[in-house]
Design brief:
Blueprint (H helix, E strand, L loop, with lengths): L6 E4 L2 E7 L4 E3 L2 E2 L5 E2 L2 E2 L3 E3 L2 E7 L6 E5 H8 L9 E4 L12 E4 L1 H5 L1 H6 L15 H9 L6 H8 L3 H8 L9
Antiparallel strand pairs: 1-2, 2-3, 3-6, 4-5, 7-8, 8-9, 10-11
Helix pairs in contact: 5-6
Length: 175
């Protein structure tokens, strides 16, 4: 299957184009010494778990490290306000194709997206919890049979945690 790749200029960076398949390239230009520089593909790098590219606004300016997803979205006319971030779709954060990207809020990014991608640190998946789903079910079933302090001692957790589990304020995704 062949995918059509469309290239568009990157706003604010006249020497670069971004593609619908999540790639960035420089366009041919004449440098400050009068030498013709050929078109080349930019090499993305991982920074804090996300792909970035280094672009230069004009000859002699400093490089700027930008999130690849944001570069692609803005090249294709998608605008965001200051509070919006780049959201990656079902193909995950390593896929920066236009069809996998959108702008949205931190709430959107931390909700269903993380559960879908398996990156949620909620409930039993959190690295600091030692409770299993079976433990949570057992704690809920012990409500009214033992005090919350006694239950807490059995599972090495405090009374407040027992209360939050029984009231479904914690581990609310577990039935």
């Amino acid at each position: 299957m062949t995918c059509f790749e469309e290239w568009r200029p990157v706003p604010g960076f006249p020497r670069y184009e971004a593609s619908s398949l999540g790639r960035v390239r420089s366009v041919p230009y004449v440098d400050g010494k009068g030498h013709l520089r050929k078109q080349r593909m930019m090499t993305p790098r991982v920074n804090c778990g996300h792909w970035t590219v280094c672009l230069v606004r004009s000859v002699g300016a400093k490089q700027e490290r930008l999130p690849l997803g944001r570069v692609v979205l803005e090249a294709f006319g998608h605008r965001s306000n200051e509070k919006e971030i780049v959201l990656h779709g079902a193909r995950g954060r390593d896929c920066n194709e236009l069809s996998n990207l959108s702008f949205g809020s931190y709430t959107q990014n931390n909700g269903a997206d993380r559960r879908r991608d398996g990156t949620s640190l909620a409930n039993c998946d959190h690295p600091r919890t030692h409770l299993s789903e079976a433990d949570v079910r057992q704690i809920r079933s012990m409500r009214g049979k033992m005090t919350q302090e006694e239950i807490g001692q059995l599972f090495s957790i405090n009374q407040t945690t027992v209360s939050n589990i029984q009231l479904r304020k914690s581990f609310n995704s577990i039935p």
